[in-house]
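Let us work through a complete example step by step.
Step 1: write down the sequence.
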Amino acid sequence: MKIYQIFVDRFSTDNAHKDARLAFKTSKTWMGGNLKGVISKLGYIKDMSFDAIWLTPIFSTSDYHGYSTTDFYSVDRHFGSNNTLKKLVDTAHSIGLKVILDFVANHVSYKHPFFVSALKNGKSRYKKWFVFDGKDNYMSFLGFKGLPKLNTKNKEVIDYLTEAGLFWINNFGIDGYRLDHAIGPSMEFWKVFTEACKKVDRNFAFLPEIWLSGIAPKYLNTLWFLEDETKKNALLELVNKNIGKAWDEIQSAKAEEFAMELFSRLFKTPLDFSSNLAIRRLKFDMLEKRRKKGFIFADNHDMQRISWLIPDKTNSVVRELGKAQNSIVYYGTEIGLSQKRDFSRLASFSDIECRRFMAWKKDNISKVKKFKYNFLGNQL
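Step 2: predict the structure and record it as tokens.
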């Protein structure tokens, strides 16, 4: 399956004039991309021979990127409505495109009503839904206090998230979930969640984010997926060897491969960050054994764009992605959408550089044709 990743707020507003004004720009807040905009471009995506689209989180949220959920049962008003999503799924299916949503089970927004209740009231039923150490001190996603961590060992939390996951399958017919920070929630939760989804649709797809690089050791105690102490210590050793080095060093690759193996029994096709390292180094020979083990990709919304890092080699990368049984292409790669600054030049919010608004210009049509030519292995 070949997937086109869409950062919803940065893709299309469904208004050509607005899209033109926003092209190549970026922001720390909302820019206006929405589900109607995605619907209007489904034919464009299908014409490039993709099989599916992956949308960044669209549930009600406190931030433009969507990774801070405030309600698991509604589409955020900035993106549209539940009815808009239903139309998107139906339209996509009518032309042979699957729809994969981004599901965040590890944490929620600090504005989520359950967390607000837990923080304000020590006797709240939701106090045990999160991981508190003391009255107001709570565990959060990699130390970001705006993203309190859910206690996914709590049965009520497991049931709540599972029911929310099933809601979008049963009522909207979605085809899969990209699972954000899959190394965070408990293995117990993932077993219940995945089995429930598969019971409804045995072909339901999961794209778990198995990414360890850049996570400091002090946060590894939040990684509950390792019940085996021997394996946990082995992983800690690998990660510690990588501290102070760039995330794409050899030790980092070993850690990613180790994590991939740990998750292989539960998730058949994880996002393969070890293959990502090979792609960025143009070590395509290293991809052969990985092509069928997980989804390979060159970049995404958390990384510097491949068209920025190695602009003269982007076509070669696209050809390698086209060879894979499972591959993902980040929106804009087909037209060479890039950055204006390197992440290293920004003290914070560096990721907004790889989240620039899509450029819907007529002169990009030839670039799209060239992309398709390379992506299909020089066969149009």
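Step 3: interpret the result. The first strand starts at residue 2 and ends at 6.
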